[in-house]
Amino acid sequence: MLKDNLKNVEERVQEACDRAGRKREEVTLIAVSKTKPIEMLQEIYDENIRDFGENKVQELCDKIEKMPKDIKWHMIGHLQRNKVKYIVGQVALIHSVDSYRLAEEINIQAKKKNIIVPILVEVNIAHEESKFGISEEDAIQLVEEIAELENVRIKGLMTIAPYVENAEDNRLYFRKIKDLSVDIAAKNIDNVSMEILSMGMTGDYEVAIEEGATMVRVGTGIFGARNYNKQ
Ligand SMILES: *Cc1c(COP(=O)(O)O)cnc(C)c1O
Questions:
Q1: Which residues carry this modification: N6-(pyridoxal phosphate)lysine (predicted)?
Q2: Does the global pTM surpass 0.70?
């Protein structure tokens, strides 16, 4: 039962907050519902979850249309510039901005709609070839450039840590990105805040919370394993 999965995740989130001396309200649990059917999302919605994460534009838009309007949708997957127009104004937060050109396109679409779009800069903290995201070394410069765009607001950083058997192996990465966010915050760049740190997935969200995550993105732990063949 999804309800039991969620309860288990909620308990573990609370325990991680307790260990770190943090308040539960400091951490938003995002239910990552990619590949999962509407009925399953509804089940989790009925348990009072209002933050959902998706990684594909088409699927995200379909689900936005079918689900209740008070949901905060999070775009967490790699975003192509030609698809930006479909999600600007539809999502609460875009987690996966890793280039100036992408931010520029978000800015153009936001201007058209006369809105300000909150985004996170995705950092590839472990330098994994297979992953998107800007390197830690280039992050500050990218933040400074994007900060000039009028209709985009940087709210923090996002990272996808490596897949590991032992979550402890990612602690150092989470700590590194927290340090980076503190460094950026200290620069007091206009229009930039570092209030959000989106890190931690099913395998490592507890460690991420201990290291300062304010948003954790949990898919498998809530909805069960994904089957990419079926759909
Ligand atoms: C799929 C995905 C998640 C959730 O992964 P789980 O291991 O199933 O919790 C989190 N973040 C991103 C960016 C994802 O694509």
A1: 34
A2: yes
